[in-house]
Amino acid sequence: MSAEIISGKELAAQTRLEVKEAAEKLAARGVIPGLAVILVGEDPASSSYVRGKEKACREAGIHSEVDRVSVQITEQELLKKIDKLNKNENIHGILVQLPLPEHISEDKIIETISPDKDVDGFHPINIGRMMIGKESFLPCTPFGIVHMLKSKNIKLEGSHAVIIGRSNIVGKPVGQLLLNENATVTYCHSRTRNMKEITRQADILIVAVGIENFLDSTFIKKDAVVIDVGINRNTEGKLVGDVNFTDVKEKASFLTPVPGGVGPMTITMLLYNTVNSAEKSLNRKQG
Ligand SMILES: Nc1nc(=O)c2c([nH]1)NC[C@@H]1CN(c3ccc(C(=O)N[C@@H](CCC(=O)O)C(=O)O)cc3)C=[N+]21
After folding, report:
1. Measured in whole angstroms, how far is the alpha carbon of residue 41 from the centre of its chain?
2. Which residues contact 183 (CB under 8 A, 6 or more apart)?
3. Ligand 1, from 229, 266, 273: best to mutate by most atoms within 8 Å of Cβ?
4. Nearest-angstrom CA–CA distance, 40 and 25
5. What ipTM describes this predicted complex?
6. So what's the pLDDT on residue 122?
7. Nearest CA to 49 among 96, 107, 108?
8. Superfamily of domain 31-114
């Protein structure tokens, strides 16, 4: 039997309708949820993602504004823009598109965004709160992955989840979220010895490496759930994940495609966090 494909595209469409309804309720209370995006430079991939975010906001009834600034902007100037957005009452979410040019410290930028508007869930305060199981903005890609698993009733409690990759925005936090769901979590990375011995134990395998065809069916046990977080361009310029899809499909129980898998869920959870932020802000004011 070949794997069931988890369509991020379909789940995203459904979830975005729910987000839209929540945005409409807020509008009825006099608040339009607002997202501010800062895009530094003209990298084509980043520009394309930002356009995707603008379109998704428009469709969900979220106000969005994109500040496109020169790659020459100084760190100081960028920090000033963030400070202004922190104080802007019409803005509930701030996203600075990563990566940033070398002369700007990503850490400094992230730490300057108010934790109450950090809809990416990258601020150390939100990461810390997630770590101790307190309410926080959850990082969008990990949040979307957990949402996809739950939508298929895939058992997390007691399951062995193996993560390949340990970035601050995907690998590390997705392991933390799965731990919060009572999974047993193992991290693999570039220095891991005997990786296949570990990945073959996985009930759920999350692949966030950034290398085309990194993972084939020899890495997995039969009926494992495989989540492909990779976004790579192949030699034909087509978007591909980290997983050899046709090979793994014959052995896995569930598999996510690229495109149409994790990517659309990432944007969806950004919309969710933005509306949630607007709700929290209104409740702080009105009680
Ligand atoms: N501050 C910040 N927050 C981010 O969330 C963030 C970021 N910086 N920098 C870059 C990464 C990447 N990322 C993606 C989001 C959606 C798709 C997506 O929707 N992909 C579609 C295809 C889109 C296409 O065709 O180009 C899909 O997989 O089906 C991909 C990648 C968010 N990121």
Report:
1. 22
2. 156, 157, 158, 159, 160, 161, 204
3. 266
4. 33
5. 0.96
6. 98
7. 96
8. Leucine Dehydrogenase, chain A, domain 1 (3.40.50.10860)
